[in-house]
Amino acid sequence: MKEIDEFLNDQKAFDKAQNTIEGYEKTLSSFDALTNKPLEKIDSKDVIRFISEPSKKMGRKRQNCQLKLSTKKITLNRLNKFFDWAIDENMIESNPVTKVRKGIKSTKVKKELMEILSVAQVSKLVKMVFNPHERIILVLLYKTGMREGELANIDIEDIDITTQSIKISDKPGNKTGERIVYLDSEGWKELQDWLTIRKTIKATDNALIVTQRKSRISNLHIWQIVRKYGDLAFQKYGDKAYQNLHPHIFRHAFTTHLAMNRILTKALQMLRGDSDKTMIDVYSHLSDEQVRKEYLAAMPKIL
After folding, report:
1. Counting Cβ atoms within 10 Å, is residue 173 exposed (0-12), middle (13-18) or buried (19+)?
2. What average pLDDT does the segment 69-94 reach?
C-alpha cells in the first residue's frame, strides 16, 4: 500500500526514533498483508480481525497464541496514528480504529507497577561484573540512560574528552535525532579503562563496543549480557528485581533516580532524547553546559 510508504516517510521527516518507525512499518505491513484492501475500503471489522488473529502475523514464534491486551493496545495505537494521518491527508473520512479502541479501553485489566532498580540494586549488579567488556555496557546503560541500540551504534570518535560526553544516535552515521549525553567521574573512569583495552583490539570498524569476533556489538548481544548478570544477581541475592532483566530497565532507573534528585525536567528530557511536546519547551531550552551541570548534580554514585 503506497499510503503506508508515504506515512513512514512523513514520520522520518518529523525525526521519529528509528525504533518507532520500525514498529509502525512492522504493524502496518502485517495489517496490509492481512486485509489486502484499498485504504478507503478498510473498516473496523478488519481491525478487529487483525488484532484477533494468532500472533504469527506479527512475526512471532508462538503461532497459536493470541496477542496480549498490552500488545493489542500498542498495535491499535500504531494503526490509529496511521489512519489519523490519512484523514489529515484527505485520503479517508473516518478512522476505523476509533470504535475498536473504545472497546479495548473499557476492558478492565490488572496493572502491574513497573519494577525500578534502586541505586543500591544497580550498584550491587554492576559490582558483580569484572569483565571490562561487559562492565562498560552496564555502566553506560545506567549512567546515560541510552537505549541498547544507541549504545551499539556509538563510534570511538563520538566521545568528547573535553566535556566527558558522548554523541549518540539511533543508527551509525545518522545525524537525525543526535543528542549529547554526559558521564560523571565514575562513568568516565570506566570508559577510559575500556578505551585502553579497546585500542589494543583491531576491530572491523570504529565501534566503541565490539564482540570477541572484533565486530560491532548487536542489540541482542547487549540484551543477553544484561540478562546474564540479572540471572546471576538473582541467584546470589535472591532479589526478584533482577529477574528477567533487560537493557531498558537501566533507562527507567536513570530517569527515576535523576528525577528523585530533582534534576530539571527539561534537562532530563534532553538527556533522554524525548521529543519536545509543547510550545513551552521552545522557550525553556537549556545550553549543553547547563544540562551537564544538572546531570552531574543529580547522578548517583554506584561504584
Report:
1. exposed
2. 86
